[in-house]
Design brief:
This protein is α+β, with helices and mostly antiparallel strands and about 700 residues long. It has a domain of about 170 residues: ATPase, substrate binding domain, subdomain 4 (Actin, Chain A, domain 4), CATH 3.90.640.10. It has 22 helices and 22 strands. Strands 3-2-1-10-11-22 form a six-stranded mixed sheet, sandwiched between helices. Strands 12, 13, 14, 15, 20 and 21 form a six-stranded mixed sheet that branches. Strand 10, helix 10 and strand 11 form a beta-alpha-beta unit. It starts with 6 loop residues before the first helix and ends in a 5-residue tail after the last helix. Bound molecules: adenosine-5'-triphosphate (ATP). Adenosine-5'-triphosphate binds next to helix 12 and helix 13. The site of adenosine-5'-triphosphate has 19 residues, from helix 12 and helix 13. InterPro entries: Actin, ATPase_NBD.
């Protein structure tokens, strides 16, 4: 290029050749490629990806090995001197060789579903999993009830030294919401022609005020609890059920840790990420040894593992789990499956909207032909634990006789769970003043039998799923992002955790306003103890009802205004009515101060609206193939009625699926994952040791069925 320039041009640039006619540089000059003829197949063929190559190689090796094994089996089956006979009977010998059972399908696959409260674990060949509490007790100076401040209700003493009336324990706002819900229920029951005594509440309160406990000596109590006895020397930690059965007053003291909180890593109670994942691995290791009988870790490399992750998973969690399973447990292969997808496998649905209410989180997701619809994923931080807490709160408000109940204490937590499971109901017909009793069993003390009356509390506590402000949401964000940073893209530094437009829409509706731009920065997540804002008014519920009361268009039963027969946005903050391509508030996903707690029925419709994306037929399909996994919290018909009242237009289409063959809804996800673990021929998502050694967690991008 330089050589072609005129002498003047070179002189102008100060590059004029003054000496020996040689080029200024001996560096080879590269001509620019003519873009018209430019072609490359770089990264365009599968065999250029190590992950795919290894997979194909593995398949080829397997085929060769099977062929060799068969030949060997044939040769071994030939009795000496009976060559001719064997040849004549070749087919039968081959059949025999094939019939030789090598191992039951799935007997070498461990399936793990980790929850906030329970771990479900089993071999893929098992019919049902084993369930163990996802908890570890560690030696500590104080147990968890001593380590936490006295919970609500605080036994507040008034100035005159008398105890505060129970009605005032939880604040005016909470009491008025409880009373309003109670009044609404009365109206609803009357509308449904259910008889109700006008003074039921007073009867309950008066009974509870008067009742005194009865003492039963420990040896006369046939149902006494077998508390965990400490060995000598006391172990450093105890895992699972025995941990829950440790007496609170044990010597030395133990403190319970639940490494998963609200469906995410527990960043509140742990001091470091290392300790957190150490506890997860100890709990899993113990469960594999004690529940599956695989006591020798040396044999684990013969096993594969299917691990269930949330629909809206966090990448850093998945990467860390993958490392634990590959490095520490040394499993031969590992694969991941999302909860909702596993639920459809377990329940036998091809397309459905899956609603999964767990202990501390509720996830909703539409699944279509074996794939989660990404934009329909919703994750709410509420679950059965909130029902337990709220039920006890409501009972205390109505003068529950056992006033000292403290859910941080192990025996009280177990008692409250039991009461909730036995008494709470969504059936309005069961709402009447009734006498119940329970036994309070504390290690080393006589049993106390309490009698009490309950009325509408049994129904209103689970109703909290539809009015979640009644739940105590005050500390659910505590410690968020304290230990584990958001996963970010290595090139642009932006968060690359999965997002969904349905979730963004719900977050937008809940978002407290950002601080004013007067120099105040956004509060750090750990400082925020936000009580979730009520959904902005008019609520999604109200708008949906409004929509359905508007005149119908000619399209059967669908509300107007509409385009292509699908309801359109009623406003920026109208969940369930406005599937938008982009989140209406793009920043909401990155804000850690918004707590996703939202009425369940609206959240379901929001998810379906985002999955259907302006396609009314799809909307009907999802509403029709709706599958619930609410694990005893909600009655099928109750949710059915709620959805019908929100969307009268779809009344005929709403169909709530139940698990097949009376399968317990709590194990459907595990069951689905176990089926997935057996799909050897079609499952491309296995991650092997060799590829993990070379590519690490980057492999996930090739191995996930969803965009990772
Ligand atoms: N029969 C029942 N009636 C009411 N609630 C029940 C019943 N059986 C279990 N539960 C509740 O279900 C919850 C536990 O559900 P599950 O074991 O599926 O949660 P998890 O998977 O550990 O939690 P998450 O999904 O939030 O991570 C608890 O709150 C428990 O009280």
């Amino acid at each position: 290029m330089v050589g072609k320039k005129s002498g003047k041009a070179l002189r102008d640039e100060g590059l004029e050749r003054t000496d020996n006619n040689m080029d200024l540089s001996s560096w080879p000059q590269v001509q620019a490629i003519n873009q018209k003829n430019y072609y490359t197949d770089y990264l365009k063929r599968d065999d250029q990806y190590l992950a795919f190559r290894l997979q194909n190689e593995e398949a080829r090796t397997k085929m060769t090995k099977t062929a060799k094994d068969r030949d060997r089996a044939l040769a071994m089956a030939k009795p000496e001197g009976a060559e001719g006979e064997a040849e004549a009977d070749g087919d039968a010998t081959m059949e025999d060789a094939e019939d030789t059972p090598i191992e039951t399908a799935g007997s070498k696959v461990i399936v793990i579903h980790v929850g906030s409260q329970n771990l479900r674990i089993g071999l893929s060949s098992d019919a049902l999993p084993k369930t163990v509490p996802m908890v570890i007790a560690r030696k500590a100076s104080k147990n968890e009830s001593e380590d936490h401040p006295e919970p609500k209700p605080k036994r507040v003493k008034r100035d005159d030294g008398t105890a505060e009336e129970p009605e005032n324990l939880f604040g005016e706002e909470w009491s008025s919401q409880f009373n309003r819900m109670s009044a609404d229920l009365k109206v609803h029951m009357r509308q449904n022609k259910r008889r109700m005594l006008p003074n039921s509440k007073e009867m309950v309160v008066n009974f509870n005020r008067r009742t005194v406990p009865e003492t039963i000596s420990e040896h006369n109590d046939p149902m006494r609890v077998e508390w965990t006895e400490l060995s000598k020397p006391p172990p450093e930690y105890i895992v699972g059920q025995p941990a829950l059965r440790l007496p609170d007053s044990s010597n030395p003291r133990y403190k319970l840790y639940w490494p998963i909180l609200n469906g995410c890593c527990n960043e509140t109670d742990y001091k470091s990420k290392r300790e957190l994942f150490l506890d997860i691995s100890l709990i899993l290791e113990d469960a594999i040894k004690t529940q599956l009988g695989l006591t020798s870790k040396k044999n684990w490399p013969q096993y594969s593992c299917v691990f269930v992750i949330p629909d809206l998973y966090e990448k850093s969690y998945v990467n860390q789990v993958l490392e634990m399973l590959m490095r520490e447990f040394a499993f031969a292969r590992v694969c991941f499956i999302q909860e909702s997808l596993a639920a459809t496998f377990g329940a036998g649905f091809t397309s459905a909207c899956v609603v999964d209410i767990g202990a501390q989180k509720t996830s909703i997701c539409c699944v279509e032909e074996g794939m989660c619809v990404e934009n329909s994923r919703v994750n709410l931080k509420m679950g059965g634990r909130d029902v337990t807490e709220t039920f006890i709160q409501m009972m205390l408000h109505d003068h529950f006789p056992y006033t000292d109940i403290n859910l941080w204490r192990r025996y009280d937590f177990l008692l409250a769970e039991e009461l909730k499971k036995n008494l709470c109901t969504m059936d309005e017909a069961s709402v009447s003043p009734q006498v119940f009793d329970f036994h309070l069993r504390v290690a080393g003390q006589d049993t106390q039998k309490h009698t009490f009356k309950a009325f509408d509390e049994v129904h209103l506590a689970p109703m909290g799923f539809f009015e979640p402000t009644i739940f105590d949401n005050s500390d659910k964000l505590l410690g968020r992002r304290k230990l584990i940073e958001r996963s970010v893209d290595i090139y642009d530094g932006q968060s690359n955790d999965p997002v969904s437009t349905a979730q963004s829409e719900i977050l937008t509706a809940l978002a407290p306003p950002l601080p004013k731009a007067n120099g105040d920065s956004q509060p750090a997540s750990s400082e925020v103890q936000a009580t979730p804002a009520r959904p902005q008014q008019p609520s999604a519920l109200g708008r949906l009802q409004d929509q359905d009361q508007t005149p119908r268009s000619s399209v059967a039963g669908s509300p107007v205004p509409e385009t292509n027969g699908t309801p359109q946005a009623g406003g920026a903050n109208t969940p369930a009515a406005a599937p938008t391509t982009q989140p209406s508030h793009p920043a909401v996903e990155s804000r850690d101060d918004i707590l996703p707690v939202f009425p369940l029925d609206n959240a379901i419709l929001t998810s379906i609206a985002h999955a259907a994306r302006s396609d009314e037929k799809k909307m009907k399909d999802f509403i029709g193939g709706y599958y619930g996994r609410w694990r005893g919290h909600l009655d099928q018909w109750f949710l059915d009625e709620r959805l019908r009242s929100l969307r009268p237009a779809f009344t005929k289409d709403i169909m709530i699926g139940v698990p097949p063959r009376d399968l317990d809804p709590q194990v459907v996800v595990w069951k689905g994952a176990s089926i997935f673990g057996k799909l050897n021929a079609t499952n491309d998502s296995w991650i092997g040791q060799l590829e993990y050694d070379r590519l690490g967690h980057r492999l996930m991008a090739y191995k996930c069925m969803w965009a990772y």
